[in-house]
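Dock GNR; give full complex structure.
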Amino acid sequence: MSLRDILIHPDPRLKKICAPVAEVTAETRRLADDMLETMYDAPGIGLAAPQVGVLDRLLVMDCEKGEDATPDPRVLINPEITWTSEALNTYEEGCLSIPEQYAEVTRPAEVRVRYLDIDGKPREEEFAGLWATCVQHEIDHLNGRLFIDYLSALKRQMITRKMQKVKRERAKA
Ligand code: GNR
Ligand code: NI
């Protein structure tokens, strides 16, 4: 397993609609393993393939937080939301591609998602709480959408400018 570099916004690859995974292969499993390692290392609770520069519809997540939580690593391939609750939930979101910037985003509180697991087996599952927020944030990434796209143009621009500065400084270092 190896760590992959996480792309920082703004990057054209974070704006693309990702392509469905045609077949779950050893390469898919390698990507998922690397993404889980990269996510835990960051640390984060989710990571979508485009964040590591791979424009495929694959995401990983583990929303069991804290030192004594039992890890629950998940891999979702070609995820599709098949139902959303009417009830909404607001969470303060962050993104590994937009480091140290946080904002409240309102989304459906529960969602049902159909996907292929790492063995290529179709599954359908309901998510609630932080898992529901996270899976929607990750599926947005697969459609070229970031959490800042839910904010006002002014807030989005302020964050984008900060990130441009962060990228310039990282390039110098
Ligand atoms: O680590 C992450 N935390 C987080 C917190 C609230 C809502 C969504 C997230 S996902 C984020 C990791 C990430 O950027 N995934 O794409
Ligand atoms: Ni993100």
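Observed: The first strand starts at residue 46 and ends at 48.
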